[in-house]
Amino acid sequence: MPQAPAPGVKIANALRAQPQLTSHYPACIKEDMRIVLALLLILPFVACNQPQSPDQIREKTANATAAVKADTKAVADGLKEGLGKNTSVNINSATKDELMKLPGVTDARADRIMAARPYDTTDELVSKKVLTKGEYDQIANRITAKKM
Questions:
Q1: For the structural domain made of 89-144, what CATH number should be given?
Q2: Model confidence band, residue 8 (pLDDT cutoffs 50, 70, 90)
């Protein structure tokens, strides 16, 4: 009479007879490992992007507001200083460098302005043909003709 197989052998033979069970199990493990690996790779990025507390947001906003206020005050002070100064250039006494600081006044134009002195009015720059009307219009609000 043939001998009956041992109990463990029966289970092993049964598992070998159904390959879908043994092949399906490793595929599940592979899929689970991919998910775990993906989570481990994403974790550092999520951990670095912690949401800020309301106190941190308020502090950053206060610092930014203070910086804007300081910059605005500096701009306003600069405008006051610039508007308060007498920026007119006297064409009868100005040096060549002072004349050349005027918009559109070149080295040659500054020489012509100095050569045709004295001027009774600033309009004489055009009437004496020292400057064209367009050149004069560029500097008209920045010049005076005071007698020395």
A1: 1.10.150.320
A2: low
